[in-house]
Fold:
Amino acid sequence: MLRKRILVVCGTGIATSTVVARKLEEKLKEEGIDIETRQCKVVEVESMLENVDLIVATTPVPDDIKVPVIRTLAFLTGIGEDEAIEEIVRGLRGR
Amino acid sequence: MALNEIINGLGITVLLPIVIFFLALVFKINGKKAFRSAVLIGIGFIGINLILGFFLNNLAPAASKMVEYTGAHLPIIDVGWPAAAAIAFAGKIGLFIIPVVVLVNFLMYTFRWTNTINVDVWNYWHFAFTGGLVYALTGNIWLGILASAINSALVLLLGDWTAPAVQEYYKIPGISIPHGFSAAFVPIAIPLNWILDKLHFDKIKADPVSIRKKWGIFGDPIIIGLILGMVVGFLGNMKNLGSIQAWFGILKLGMSMAGVMYIFPKMVAVLMDGLIPISEGVRDFMKARASTRKFNIGLDSAILVGDPAAIASAMILVPIAVILMIIIPQNQILLAVDLAVLPFMVVMTIPITRGNVLKTVIIGTVIITGGLLIGTNLSPLFTKAAIQAQFNMPSGATQISSICDGSNPLSWLIVKLMDKSFGIAILIAIFFLFLYFYKKHEKGWEKIAGASKEYLEKSE
Structure:
């Protein structure tokens, strides 16, 4: 599978998105998926969509975005991390 | 060699990583991971310090020239949340903040005073910031730690109080937001919202999505930075606009400020990266010990900031804040970095106004007006805390503040009360009265914080 690009979105593009991005890099590597993450804040999301395969967000993002969005707090709460990873893997493989 | 000499000699870029490393081991993080993250934290501080120096060295001279030519007396520079967070963690109180907040939370949970387990370790910095101001004021480290503890305890209650409203509006069951900045405005927003409803402002609806499209420019920090830098540069060069050099300077200042707005938060991300292992360690430690009854997991208000009404309100508030900065005679703050984080100021007002943009903007205007006065008032302590935390301040009389934490009414209240013993007694009384009346009329309180009757009945 080619390298996948994931855009991680939160309120600042700094705090919670860093936590999620590191977690995705760690967990998806274990799944054998090569990913590249970029982070941004939610107001920038429309201008960051080029070449993005999946958006993982901790905060609501606009409805009219063309890229698939997975909104999850699992990596922050530590509850349901495995299910979230599964959903993300499905999201990436489905494309 | 005395302990103080060692502390001062090492400096925060070495000392805090050492503290974090040992703390990480306590919370059972493996040594290799703990070591790397500790080093990253040191790197984060180096980055923030570099950008802060660049920022102040560029903006401060231009701002003082602007004062000369226009008479706009705005000598206090808004260094924003990246600097505030770094100052908070790098101060003496910051060294102790993680165990202090964990202990307060654990005790309150055990006594059934809170249902929130605040695992948002990064945002403990807000409490350390308040403590750091108290330490700058009193020189007493214990008073600083006590102030942080009281701040975190009050914010846990705010988190509990707003939990049903936040869960319902933002559709995030099991979560609460004990955020030192965002939650502080709830007690202000509730009565203002009540007044606005009496005046029928709730009937006027504005569409957040179209506002966002129209006002989008005020949501982009680099554009804010660019415009701000050029305007300050222009006003500072009023007397020699005929010279090409002046225009070079104006453009350069615009570019520099755009750069600061972009790079400054990125440096915080390095710090954040370094804090991840210990955050997870603390989270798992707390969750494992909080299994006796149901609890809400306390997270960062950043998870709410994507709300369209919050974004739209904050965009409109950017130009309003700039106008307020100019027309309020007592204000001395030159707004800059924190213009990018106004959404954090309104996210917990949104459930109260039920996503009404107009009401949120009016409440935000009142909050910012008060904030400019508070920030001006706290600026000497903010500046002193930065110097105590060994940040590079340009020579001369540069003063700093921020429109977010430097203007936080809850921090201000605590700072003003902490230097007298009866003031401390008042703070403790506020805590217990808050706790008593909230627990006594739980549902009623949660309803005025924005939860619907149906939701509260369902969640029983």
